[in-house]
Records
---
Amino acid sequence: MSERRRIEFEYSGVDTERMRVNVGPQHPSTHGVLRLEVELEGEIVTEVIPHIGYLHRCFEKHAEAMTYPQVIPYIDRMDYISSMNNEWPYVMAIEKMCDIKIPEKVEYIRLICAELNRIANHQIAVATFGLDAGAFTPFLYLFRDREWILNVFETISGGRLLYNYYCVGGLRNDVYPTFKEDCLDIVRQVRATNKEIMDLLVYNYIFVERTAKVGVLPPDVAINYGCSGPVLRGSGNAFDLRRSEPYSIYDRFDFDVQIGKGEVGIVGDSWDRNIVRMNEMEESCKIIEQAVAQMPNTGDVSEAIPKKVRVPKGEIYCSAENPKGELGFYIVSDGGQKPFRVRPRATSFINLSVLPEISKGYMIADLVLILGSIDIVLGEIDR
Amino acid sequence: MTEKEIYDILKDSFGEEIIEFAHEPPSDPFIIANRSKIDEICLFLRDADELDFDYLVLLSGMDYIEKLGVVYQLYSLKYKHRITIKVFLEKSDPNIPTVEKIWRSADWHEREAWDMYGIVFQGHHNLIRILCPYDWEGHPLLKDYKTPDEYHGIKVPY
Amino acid sequence: MEHNFIYNLINNEVIAIIAISLLPLIFVLIYALIAILGELKIASFVQERLGPMRTGPWGIIQPVAEVVKLIQKEDITPSAADKKLFNMAPYIMFIGAYAAFAVIPFSSAFVPANINVGLFFLFAVGAFAIIGIVMGGWASNNKYSLLGAMRSASQIISYEIPAGIALLTIAALAGTLNLQELIEAQSGWFWNWFLFGGDGSVWKIFVLPFTFSLFLIFLVSSLAETNRTPFDIPEGESEIVAGYHTEYSGIKFAMFFFAEYANMFVISALITILFLGGWNSPFGEFLGGPIWGVFWFIIKAFFFVFVQIWLRWTLPRLRVDQLMYMSWKVLVPFSFLCFFAISLWAMLK
């Protein structure tokens, strides 16, 4: 068998009719309303054309009609499973423009929430990836744990999915007294479950057979396609904004940038992208433990919130390492109360664009897994 | 490498094509370039050894009311430096050479810019709408865009 | 007729035949309800949740509710479908599953039809399901269904070979195709089961590895034949939506569903007959006899039904080419090896 598991689809002399299949927009494993136009030669995929926009609501146009703080709820609805992370680069961008100094305690709470949300996002990613491979049970184990995180978010922000919690210069509410203990409980629980998931799913022989050497994304291709997050790191590129350009207070913590090593197959295969997510959960746990230990108990989280957000004329690009990759906001201000332009760098949008490149020549069952390994959310792709 | 140094290198290589360097904190610094040779400038930025901008972070279309624009945000994974290149386009002639062959991520971004602003990327292999329906009329993010009354019999404004 | 207590009970032959053919049907219906509940409850146990709790105490009426729901649902036939074949397919599949019950010996005193080629009949009827699947998949006029039907056809045909060789080997060891005689050959303590090499002297220790691996080969191939996880590729939910039954709804879907559960039992019964001594008590004469025989048979068969459910909620799914690889390059050669070794033993014995 050749090194790459890609199947050559030149049948000499066998004349078969190619079949065009619409995978989606209603399909169990397109993770939303994504439509893939797939051309099949028997079971083998010869062409994939993604059609997106089924969830398009023109976020950018909305943002131009809102004041700066009013945009935040719309940002929640972009990548709706990691809303905390979404809000962060946006408020950071405005704080940089307005030169607002935020209190120490706020930084810590933001960071802990972002890391908790990273865990929650990766739990969904790994769970649905397993589900795509046919394993239903790990899916429920991971969702059960995610509830713990959502409970904490619900207590501090009032929402379970869309938080609207970060605001320019601070936070909407202070955390509750037992917040730290709850975070440590979650860390313990996540570690225990991840150990189980490693045995049950990640190192399962069938799962390894299904995902290793499938959907190989070479490092240079990943960079050229602008991939980021676990997709880029799964290909062996150690690029993490938290490490390469530490924003907020990430320079105070000790954690490793996880990259795909080709442990069971080739560097950059679907399994590698998945293991990067598994390992990143552990790194997030480490960060949370350190942050909880360092976090100051006193402080007012809303002292730096300006009465009225008026951004000076100019433009800024500010990005943060989201669970799915680099999420950035390019904000252009004309000096008024409303942004002139808010342009998000939608991570899933860019990561999805690599799908046609890496799924050709695999089977239709692999296509679903490759899509799952990219970990997209349609709310962000279609915006 | 700072943005100013990058600007100097570009200025040496392309002369008239590079118009201006602007840096007014707290704004990000940016370079304004001419549109006609933007693909060559981008290729130079990617391939020059000391620049090595291998990562197109973001390509955005812009509507500056009197003009259109395209903004390229570039990053180098090796040297960890960023640069923003701006190109202004006349509304009467919104054509610009494509950079999709330089960074493949530009493919979808350019389609989006076409979809939202009507900017034509010359040489793009498949410049069709991406977020709006394929038969949508108009370019929604233009500042003077009027929402159509209906789309295939569906009332649009609500 | 000595294998059928109903003939002795009822002197009228016509009524007896009707009663005999109805008995398995009643059994299948009750079994299906138990299996559905088992599937729900075992799944919820594996996944650390309660499962259905609202319908009846601990949700034990849930399967009834499910069946009622399925019957009530609108029965949709796609307008572009081939209506005759489309409507026929689920019933053909169920007939295949139900016909197998004709030869299953539940006890030494009850087997609906004690025919001499029982093993052969069971195997032949088991392949009936594929006709229903291909028919349904093709007639739905849906690309997902077609893919599912194609996958299913290739899968079942591939796995019939190792399964068939396993059957042949056991037939060679027992010297009969009659299921009752096959079970009688394994009477006595559990070490007389074909799983442990059958009746014989201590020298059967040499044949034990072969019978044991034959058992595993048969278990794997029969899982594949019933389209259960990890071989549920024909209905691979995440890839081809629901495979061959994508377009089915209501009662016709219920028939597919039913046939799947019936097939699970048939396969488990076959494993029990071939390797675990059928209705024999594991402990010699202890709790032996025709009435306890029913108990032992159903317990053993249900254990394998449980194994199938258990596997379903634990393992991911294989891919088509891996499935073929496993059948043709692993199971077939090994089953030939076992066949050779066991036949040699049967000759020397």
Note: Chain B touches chain A through 33 residues (CB under 8 Å).
---
Amino acid sequence: MKIHEYQAKELFREYGIETGEEYAVKTPEEAVSAAEKLGYPVVIKAQVLVGGRGKAGGVKVAASREEAEEHAKTILNLSIKNLPVQKVLVARAEKIEQEYYVGFTVDRGKKMVSLMISAAGGVDIEELAVSSPEKILKLAIHPAAGIDDSSLGKILGDIFESEQLRRQAREVIRSLYRLFIEKGCSLVEINPFAKVHGDTLLALDAKINFDDNAVPFHPELERYWNREEFSENEIKAKKAGLHFIGLDGEIGCIVNGAGLAMATMDIIKLYGSSPANFLDVGGSSNPQKVLTALKVILSIPGVKGILFNIFGGITRCDDIARGILMAREQIDITIPIVIRLIGTNDKEGREMLSEAGLSALETLDDAVKEIIAAAQAGDK
Amino acid sequence: MSILIDEKTRVMVQGITGRDGSFHALAMRDAGTNVVGGVTPGKGGEDLEGLPVFNSVTECREATGADCSVIFVPARYATAAVREAADAEMPLIVCITEHIPINDTIGNYHYIKEKGLTLIGPNCPGLISPGKCKVGIMPVKIHLPGSIGVISRSGTLAYEVVHNLTKNGMGQSTVVGIGGDPVAGSGFTDILPLFEKDPGTEGIVIIGEIGGEEEEKAAEYIRAHVSKPVAAFISGRTAPPGKRMGHAGAIISGGKGSPESKIKALGAADVPVADSPEQIPALLKERLQGR
């Protein structure tokens, strides 16, 4: 789960990390009154769940009431990477003397949470990791021991020039790690972690991603959920217990299991077409899930055919067949469907389908070739 | 022969009276596995169709001599269950449960590793040595006893590959589902040495997917240490970057975890990568005959 900068900063302040005074607002009028309270110049920043807002014109400095109103109006009318800007954050435009970077993420290789810190902050850290990896210092953290004090001291000594800054940075890093663990994060970042007024460090931007598996254990995070993180179809599918991701190809697919679902997409591409979506119906799927899956896929523009690929383990093939038959009664399906059923109760499933005039294939490659041929025939 | 589990393995089930735990405890027993009992706290003294139920892993282990525990408890209690098995010094712990927070799994991983025990999973189908022992949820009938070792991050994709191997008369020594989370108890490089050493394994299939760098590490390990033929399949070639493809671990992010990087690394280790799971038997056969 991703959250906005202003939401992440709320959590920062809860953990004693200084962000400076600022206001998240929805209208140009509110932006002006926030700016008046803060005093000029102010910075007005689009609140969107994607990166690259600066390049998209979503961050502007205003030196007067008129500018504040104009910039807020412009930014609130923007869409950045297809996401409409619904809120802006108005903050005092600090004179930044140096930009640092501080973040925590999961190091999959080391199987530990890792601290990343750099004196070259303010830029895209993923780009920095490629162009000058030596500028990012890392410290892997043993989950039982926590942050090792002497290793941290050494890193801080390499990054910050004064004891005053090191002391502040140490406190922020410890608080940020506590937040990371206590709230079930998968990423936290302060970029820039800025030096202002000679000796003060402020978190002038904030990014937090929560581990989707941890969110259910943190009811206090519910209020941060942003509907725009997902498309309507993704939300519909999620509610039905399906994992769905919309793509822009022509073959819709309904598969059990994430790995098999990805492989099905890949094989559709291999035989010359393109997948319209990723959809995992999960284990022990009931007929209702199949119905929802079909409805979601039929609502994607440009879908020319639907492929079912079910390898029954926990999932029972007769359940899937029942779902397909139920769906056929309830919705008008005008595009071709090809079904591949194998595994638990496949014989029963195939019999049910053939009685209803539908055929089910046994091998994946054959099924993919058949749906592509059928979809392209329907195209002519 | 096989790795990790065989006909002598004494399997216990954590969460044995739950919906999934009870179903699979009996299914494992039906498959010929030596299931010796299980645990549900507060239900000690009961039994599940003749399988004794205990209050704790330690009690169960002492009474039954279990040397492998398979965990079916919900995500909320899974970390406590994993730690309890580790505290009872269970040599092999298999965690089927999905949706365990990553930070919990990181803690569990190091806790178990430092005790010298083995964890398979979480978020995995378990493992099977066909004809001998099944610890997990996979359908038995697609398997065939034989000499191909399989390691997979995905459950159903492992079924797909196993089905194709079996159809081509290529049985399996052991099939290990290592799971789809970003951090797994055992990775490709933990299981590969076991297959390399196992005299009953002649060839190996690894089934990877986008996300992380485990396949690249596996390729490096194979190049340096594996003499047996290996074939691979990598799923997610059409996955868009930045999207989590069902598995928590299946995501291309920060320029890492792309299929191209994995396929390239495996190619450099002379491991053929199939375009479709259907091609795996032929690729492996070719390598086995070429030896």
Note: Chain A is about 40% helix and 25% strand.
